[in-house]
Amino acid sequence: MTAVPMISDFLRSRRLRLCAYAVALAYGQRPRQVDRLLMSEWRKELAIPRDAAPHPESNLEWWYCYAILSGKGGSRYALMTAFFRVGELPVGKGHYLIYSLIRLDKPQFIARSYLDRPLFYQMTGMYLPMYFLFRPGDRYTMNQYGQLLQGKLPSPHQWMKDVSVTSRPTVVRYGQAKLAFEDDAKADFSLRIDDPEGTIELEFAPDKPHSLIDGEGTLNGLYYYSCTRYRVSGCVRHSEGDEPLTGSGWFDHQWGRNYDLLKGEGWNWFGLQLDDGRELLASEFHKPDAQQRPGAPHPSRGSDDARSAQAILILNDRAYTTKNVDIKPLRSWRSLRTGLIYPVEWRIRAPDLRLDLRVSAAFPQQEMPIIGPLRAIWEGACRVSGTDLTSGRAVCGSGFVELAGYAAVQAGKEAFSPV
User: How far apart are CA 417 and CA 381, in angstroms?
Assistant: First the structure.
């Protein structure tokens, strides 16, 4: 008979790793060497959905979900929520919340950005000074840094209180937003957002197993898993009363140790749900100030990995990954609020996955404010059409696109407000 480890043994081993990590940093051990040790330990212990829980050893962690929903009378909604946890040590973490509430049939777009005091102190005391070592000419972020040093929070960002992150089961509560797992043995979770425009309560039930991204569950130095299709139900409470909602959702969880944001790197991310039951996750990293087309050779990667793009096709029982993917922007949009230019239509060709897709924004005005050097991202609902190259049949679907790193050399206004 095989012995089952006691929970106390697991907790003891985790505490030992936390202590070892803090001691290693205190005595001058190279962070990268310690990070490799932690990645090795995470790989040994990775278990889903238990790993929805927080990972204190990480300096960067986030929980992300989106949903595309139908209401009564033909109304259609979408939302995105991301809970970020930041900090070099296992204690004293900073927290950041962004979410968007989208009306697809109007259209309307509302974006929120909240941070707590610990993140404010970490940004002003460490992360922004480190960033300026890499990018001393970023005048916009330097001006924002000056405001922060005066104790002023730039508009439209807001302070956030009442933050808690707990395990067994995992509950992430950031101000007026809460993501809660039923227990550590299930992938079901609930989401509640209390916004001035209304309250949304949703239940997410998985239609598929979780997928480890990039085979072993790592991407760009972070552990990464997704559940790419959830059945979503719930309601929205607004001035017109309660409206029941049903639809489809997506969940990502990433954690690890990474400093690419300090180097000014950007990315394009596509989380697409096809109507035939498959999902496509495509991503690429790019240098935002090089005037290069995303998908071109990445300056921080060697010749063995000249292209930063990759795509993962998720089926019911397996996933296929390829780097033979071309993501080509077809049409752009300029934000009147920031002056930034984003692609809002793309062609994604993945010959190894036998897909040729066109992805179009549901509407262009889906830009979100972000505190710090990113300044803003484009994070929005999209439509998908295209062809299955094996059968020749048409495919369609929907999803979300995230574009980051477009602000480095572009100037514009700072104000954000609902569309």
Answer: 18
Please give the C-alpha separations between residue 21 and each of 25, 89, 154, 164, 374, in angstroms, as whole numbers. Answer: 6, 8, 35, 23, 29
**Homologous superfamily of domain range 260-419:** AttH-like domain (2.40.370.10)
Break the chain into its structural domains and give their ranges: 260-419
Residue 12 has a pLDDT of 40
Task: Provide the 8-state DSSP code for 297.
Answer: B
CB of 248 closer than 8 Å to CB of 232: yes
Task: Tell me the sheet residues that pair with 234.
Answer: 202, 245
Burial zone of 250 (CB within 10 Å; 0-12 exposed, 13-18 middle, 19+ buried):
buried
Separation in Å, CA 169 to CA 4, 53, 178, 232, 394:
20, 8, 13, 20, 42
Q: How many CB atoms lie within 10 A of CB 318?
A: 9
What tens digit of pLDDT does each residue of 85-111 get?
999 999 999 999 999 999 999 999 999
Sorted by sequence, the CB contacts under 8 Å of residue 408 that are 6+ apart come out as: 135, 138, 264, 266, 288, 289, 373
Residue 348 and residue 325 in contact, taking contact as beta carbons nearer than 8 Å: yes
| CA 369, chain centre distance (Å) | 14
Helix, strand, coil share of the chain (percent; to 5):
20, 45, 35
Assigned token pair, 314:
């998720």
Q: Where are the alpha helices (DSSP H) in 90-138?
A: 117-122, 128-134
Note the pLDDT tens digit of each residue in 209-254.
888 776 555 556 788 899 999 999 999 998 888 999 999 999 999 9
Helix (H) or strand (E) holding 359, with range, is strand 355-361
Q: Which residue has the tokens 């990759």?
A: 310
Dig out the tokens for 379 from the structure.
Answer: 């994070």
Is the model more confident about 415 or about 158?
158
| Residue 7 in tokens | 């929970």
